[in-house]
Amino acid sequence: MNTDYIPARDSELVAWSANFIAQLTPHIFPWGINPQDFTNLQVAASGFATLHQQADSPEKTSVIVAQKNAARAALIALVRALVNFQLRNPAISDAERVALGLHVHDGTHSPVPVPTSRPELNIDVLDVRRLRVAFHDMGSAGKAKPYGVNGAVILYAVLDAPPTSPATLTRSVLATHTPFTLEFAEEERGRTVYVAICWQNEQGEKGPWSEIESAIIP
Predict the structure, then answer these.
(1) Residue 177 domain flag
(2) What is the mean pLDDT of residues 180-187?
């Protein structure tokens, strides 16, 4: 079950953020909310609502849609910052949290599932000695990670022959966002790098590995 309090649909986020701001307004000082942060939230919510309306019209353009998506991300970042840092206040009751549109936890923690799906990856040339690795959940068109996953473990190695399994890839990094940039030494240019990735949850448990992909280091 998705326990995130942020609505998935843009139209729902517009209504949710309006209620969130309305509920916060009389409590800015009692709850210790930074007034400038609250003002930034109001501006972000208003901007997102306007761009959502434009992006939902028949006259929308790709530029408007991109601006709307960026505004959504900025609004969500401000909301999460307020919730995680300024609304962790014992003075706020469960009823008030519900009114804000937040979840009330019962004090128990649901176990984080071990990832069961495998990611897919694409490798593109970014610059000299740099490759960009983009990844997403298999069968998904979006960039969202599976529930409980905190990132993708990237294994890679520069080899003369294709590896038989991810275990032979000696370099590793945890990427929490896609795409991720891999950088190489000058003497590795022209050689082949092999890459495999898997999802890792918040407990460090890994899911199945992707196919091993390769690219020439530019």
Answers:
(1) yes
(2) 94
Q: Are residues 125 and 90 in the same domain?
A: no
Mark which of 66, 100, 134 sits at the end of a domain.
100
Q: pTM of the full predicted structure?
A: 0.52
- Listed in sequence order, the residues at least 6 apart from 157 whose beta carbon sits closer than 8 Å to its beta carbon are 163, 168, 169, 170, 171, 193, 194
Query: What domain range includes position 144?
Result: 119-216
- Residue 148 binned pLDDT confidence (cut-offs 50, 70, 90): confident
As a whole number of angstroms, the distance between CA 132 and CA 215 comes to 10
At residue 149, the pLDDT reads: 86
pLDDT recorded at residue 4: 78
- Contact between 151 and 200 under an 8 Å Cβ cutoff? The reply is yes
109 has a pLDDT exceeding 70:
no
* Residue 217 · residue 129 · CB < 8 Å: yes
pLDDT band at 71 (very low <50, low <70, confident <90, very high): very high
- Kindly state whether residue 109 falls inside one of the protein's structural domains: no
Residue whose C-alpha is closest to residue 172's, from 149, 204, 148: 204
* Tally of helices (H runs) and strands (E runs) in the chain: 4, 7
Using the 3D structure, point to which of 49, 69, 100 is the last residue of a domain: 100
Backbone angles phi, psi at 110, to 5 degrees: -75, 140
Whether residues 127 and 89 share a domain: the answer is: no
Burial of 210: CB neighbours in 10 Å, binned 0-12, 13-18, 19+: buried
